[in-house]
Specification:
117 residues, mainly alpha, 85% helix, 0% strand, elongated
């Protein structure tokens, strides 16, 4: 189950990446990018929700919960893609989710290395 959740997370992130770069490359007139991004955001959130941590490290558990917030930000960005006419709305939430992902991608391996010593 955990491997399936990790796979869903990675596929979701790839679809989010594709969904963000289509309107940047072709302009906002292409409508397919919204659906690609929305499916990616949903897969990412589901993967994050089911990718649990069974250990006792509280800091690592908290960092994995913070990753769920990144998935929620991506889902809110997908909502704004469909409802808002201003692209600044969805781009803001994509950047917020990306910033969280950058922070957790640096801190999770650091905490794991520190925990193994």
């Amino acid at each position: 189950m955990r491997q399936l959740a990790t796979l869903a997370t990675w596929i979701g992130l790839a679809l989010i990446l594709i969904g963000v770069f289509i309107p940047l490359a072709t302009g906002p007139h292409a409508s397919l990018y919204k659906y690609i991004f929305a499916v990616g955001a949903a897969l990412n959130l589901v993967g994050r929700l089911f990718n649990g941590y069974e250990g006792s490290n509280v800091r690592l558990k908290r960092l994995l919960r913070i990753e769920i917030w990144a998935g929620l930000f991506f889902c809110v960005a997908a909502f704004f893609m469909f409802t808002s006419l201003d692209p600044k709305d969805w781009i803001t939430f994509v950047l917020a989710g990306g910033a969280i992902m950058v922070y957790t991608s640096i801190m999770i391996p650091y905490v794991q290395r520190k925990d193994n010593k």
